[in-house]
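Table S2 (text version). Query chain:
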Amino acid sequence: MLELPHKNILITGASSGIGKQTAYQLSSQGAHCFISGRNEERLKETFTQLDISDNQKHQMHCADLSQAEDIQALIDELPVLDGVVCNAGLVKTKPLKYIDENLIDDMFDVNTKAVILLVSGLLKAKKLNRGASISIVSSISTYKHTPANSVYSASKSALNAFTTSSALELAKKKIRVNAVLPGFIQTNLMQDDKVDNNQLEQHLKNYPLGRFGTPEDVANILCFLMSDKSEWMTGNLIKIDGGFSIH
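Corresponding structure-token output:
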């Protein structure tokens, strides 16, 4: 058991995938989960499945984190937190010659600017306890580059720099900041008719452990980082990619 009972933890992007699984696992370990997402219907689905033993007090907050006013509204509604999982993100692939300003703005607004404004706003509002843990979901694409992924990789690379710099700055408050860098994660999107199974089979050959990741794989690390068992870890960029980056 991780040391999570009664910890107040915010999870953004909790309506699906990694965020959803992380909220489930944190609640099962006794944390009070404050979940956020843009899709209210899917967020409600996550919320109804959270563990409610031990008088746990969960809350859901529908918010579009690409909008500064939604970020501020979320901060205003939150209690003082012991942990933050910054998971909300946007993935769009496009060859260089088709990149435009709108794509850059959309990607950086959600993947980068939202995280920075959220963390800064929580500090300004004094909504982070001494000893709090912040975990940021980045991507292995910041190390292992692929075609048509330049803007996404750039937006996540900025998060890596933000992680290490803010970890150094917040160490005096005993607030830890780490990032996890997942490889390819199996989600419901893989059931989409548009997914090319032949391409997936070829891509799988790049994973030495012989499989793609699951939301549970990443959630396990995020839950550990939210616990006191990781209290001597900060400024880390943790690869969780089945060996993809060393292939």
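Notes on Table S2: The chain has one domain: 8-240. The chain has a mean pLDDT of 94.
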